[in-house]
Every structure is written in structure tokens, then in C-alpha cells.
Amino acid sequence: MNTNHEPAKPAPRRKIALVAHDRRKQDLREWARYNRDELAKHDLFATGTTGRLLSEDLGLPVTCFQSGPLGGDQQIGARIADGDIDLLIFLWDPMESQPHDHDVKALLRIAVVWNIPVACNRASADFLISSPMMEQPSPQSIPGSVPRPHSVLAESWS
């Protein structure tokens, strides 16, 4: 409730990347259909096949990149580094080795470095999409901007 008589600011449009490995695509499709109304308030990005399936299922525009093995994971990672992705929902399959595992690791690493929220399963995706923080402005995420705990050892190296 706004009690200071200022007009309420609209919730920000988040830029959400949606990625799923083959054995997890159905999970992502079901999750996205359930959360369609919330996803409709945001800009959606996805890797190749996942993006096409989601666009058809949801009837929403989805900016599609290449498929993951053809560079789509790297394209999304580059968008994260450019500040063009706010949140990553990446339902990856931990039980199956991927031919592009190094790209998967790189995408997860860049998301952590740039301090953007990441969900790797439906439960964490539910927490992110329903968080009250989705309604608040995002702080600028830049590497090194996250406060580090004090370390006597690190001081001794200086």
C-alpha cells in the first residue's frame, strides 16, 4: 500500500531467459503454461527449440537464439554479460551428460559472476517467479559489486 501519495510505479519488465535440456523441456513447458500470466508481463528469451515450443504453447513472443549445442547457451551468456538478461531459468539434466557440457558450465558461471537469479529446477523457478522482489527495481549487477566477506588471509596477500 502506498501511503505517501506518490503514484505507484509499475512493476519492472524483467528479461527472463528460459533454457531446458531435451529431457527437461516438458517440465519447462508445463511450468511456463502454469505461470503464463506472470511470464506475459516480461520479455522472454530462449534457446532454439525451447523458445519455439514456448512461443507456440504460450502464445507469447519469445526471442529465440540458436539451440544450446549450436551456441545458444553462449548467446544467452553474452546477453547476461551485456546486462540484457535479468533472470535465468535453466532446467538442465544432471543425470545425462551433454555434448556441450562446457557451454552449460560457462552459462551457469556467467550467471553467478553477474549476480543474476538462477533456477535449475521447477521448485526454484516457482520461488523466483513468485518472489515479491520481481516487483522491485533490480540493482545493477556487475562483477565485483557483491560485497565479499572480510578475509585476513586475503589481506596478507595485499
Structure description:
- The chain has about 160 residues and is of the alpha/beta class.
- The protein has 7 helices and 5 strands, in the order βααβαβαβαβαα.
- It has a 5-stranded parallel β-sheet, with helices on both faces.
- The longest helix is centred in the C-terminal third of the chain and has 13 residues.
- It is globular, with a radius of gyration of 17 Å.
- The termini are far apart.
Task: Reconstruct the topology from this structure.
Layout: E1 15-20, H1 25-34, H2 36-39, E2 43-46, H3 48-58, E3 62-64, H4 72-81, E4 87-91, H5 101-113, E5 118-119, H6 122-130, H7 152-157
Parallel strand pairs: 1-2, 1-4, 2-3, 4-5
Helix pairs in contact: 1-3, 4-5
Secondary structure tally, helices: 7
Low-pLDDT residue spans? 146-158
- Please report the total strand number as a whole number: 5
> End-to-end distance, in Å?
49 Å
The helix content, as a percent range, equals 25-40%
Instruction: Using the alpha-carbon principal axes, give the shape.
Output: globular
Mind telling me the C-alpha Rg? 17 Å
Strand content: 5-15%
Class inferred from helices and paired strands: alpha/beta
Strand order of the largest sheet: 3-2-1-4-5
Query: Secondary-structure element order, as H and E?
Result: EHHEHEHEHEHH
Identify the quaternary structure here: single chain
Largest sheet: 5 strands, parallel
Average pLDDT over all residues: 84
